[in-house]
Write a sequence for this structure.
């Protein structure tokens, strides 16, 4: 559950205009893409390995990518995740390989974003999260 009422997160615009924001897992600084079109939050296999998150064949989720291709991917639980000053616990995340041209640690999807009133300020590359 979020611990503050509002947090303004300064990010950066990249890859043609998408918003990347700083995220912390276990005090490690990472960078995630904000994707309101993604149902789930996702992390890269490198991030999963860094935090020694066990990938279990029993915890697979079948998803359909934007191109329409179905895929089974591992699902993990992140004990704690900070987006700006917002603290979330037990965040469900998929473990996915991102295109190599994108230097991403992860994606913030709707399973996280729907917990907030979200404002994207594209002119300043700022993500504003307010508790609801």
């Amino acid at each position: 559950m979020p611990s503050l009422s509002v947090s303004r997160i300064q990010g950066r615009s990249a890859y043609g205009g998408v918003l990347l924001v700083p995220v912390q897992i276990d005090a490690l600084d990472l960078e995630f893409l904000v994707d309101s079109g993604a149902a789930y939050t996702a992390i890269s296999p490198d991030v999963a390995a860094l935090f020694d998150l066990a990938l279990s064949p029993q915890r697979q989720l079948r998803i359909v990518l934007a191109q329409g291709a179905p895929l089974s991917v591992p699902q993990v639980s992140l004990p704690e995740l900070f987006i700006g000053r917002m603290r979330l616990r037990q965040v469900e995340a998929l473990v996915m390989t991102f295109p190599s041209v994108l230097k991403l640690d992860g994606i913030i999807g709707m399973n996280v974003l729907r917990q907030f009133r979200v404002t994207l300020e594209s002119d300043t590359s700022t993500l504003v999260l307010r508790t609801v």
In short: The domain at 6-131 is CATH 2.40.70.10 (Cathepsin D, subunit A; domain 1). The CA atoms of residues 40 and 111 lie 5 Å apart.
